[in-house]
Amino acid sequence: MEIILYLSVAVIAVAFFILVLSVMKTLKSLGTTLDSVSTTLNGLEGQLQGVTKESTELLHKTNLLAEDIQRKSEDLNTVVYAVKDVGHSIQKLNNSVKKVSTSISTELERNQTKISQVVQWGNAFIELKDKWKQKKDQPSQHDVTINSQSPNEAYTQEKKVKRARSYNN
Hints:
Structural class: mainly alpha
Largest sheet: none
Number of domains: 2
Shape: rod-shaped
Helix content: over 70%
């Protein structure tokens, strides 16, 4: 029985040795894996810091761009309001011109007879002035006939007569 006891202790010792070797091999493999994970995490941490830095810069640039767009939008609003005011001013000017032209045309229609009389009187005055000037420029003899006048004088005389007849009608 003693042998069985020694043999069982020897088997337990060998089994324990094999168990220790396999646990050691597993732990060594686990150590290698953990080293690889650690290296990967260190690289990932560096990349994450780079991405964080770039994201911060991008956010800063986006904020600057948003502020610039806001300023330009406000400037553009000023221009739009100015153009709108110019449009209103032009519309008011157009309305004023319409009113003035309407009142002028109404007055012209109302005073058309008076205007035509003034024009007739003016033409008559011009004709009288021309006749007076012609008489002043002509010699005192009245026996000069139209046939003895030059062609230009005859044409002028005929033109005056036609003008006087048109005003009288």
